[in-house]
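Reading group handout, session on sequence-to-structure problems. Before we discuss, look at one worked example. The prompt was deliberately terse, the way you'd type it at a terminal:

> structure Transcriptional regulator

The input record follows.
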Amino acid sequence: MRAQTTNAPARGAGGGYPPFAPATGKGGPPPVITEMSLFRGISAEDRARIFVRGRMMTFVRDEVALAEGEVPDLIFLIASGQFACRKTAASGLMFALCQLNAGTFFGESALVHGRASEMEVTATRRSTVWALPASDFCAAMEGHPSISRRLIDEMAVRIGVLATLSFEAATLKLEARLCRTIQKLALEADQLRDGGTVRPAPTHAELASMLGTTREVVSRAMMGLARRGVIETRRQEIHIQSVEGLFRSGR
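And the output record:
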């Protein structure tokens, strides 16, 4: 399935996107893009120049926006929805490294000439991005060093997240990692309490991708937590019955 786009050419058969021509008309990125922390302190006039050749693009659920190994020439600024960053192991298992929401970005490997993406980026629901030619973004960084500093800050945070994932994968059992994942999801939804509900919750297959395992293994672990009264699962919901039990099982 190919990306649905607004005023932009479709993705080519080779996996990349054709170069964008200068934008025409009055269309521009929404405030969630123009007000991203990357561009804080930059005048509206300068921001308009940065975004002028961008295009809004729409991806449906499970659609690949950026393939692992692809050499992108665009950077994608997320306007709505959510994307999962995944990497495939030699065994064939797909491991979800992180999830990106509106106001963040992906495709930063495009800023390093000729560098392939080290992960696959896939929409987890209907999502939109403002796709900007990497050359334009590089020019913006040269003209506004604050963009470079904030980009480095964001990449440092992401490296820290990956380091934590690697440590947990090496030192914790699957159930403990699952409990920590549920804790994180509940915290993000402001539901980390007895009686809290994560809604919509990831499917068992999506949780398996986050944990680098199989759906069957996750299903068994979820049933074990439910039997002990830690959680209760419903359709697209994880109901937290005991936060104390969730933390205890996450050690």
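Points for discussion. First: The chain has two domains: 4-168, 173-249. Second: The first strand starts at residue 4 and ends at 5.
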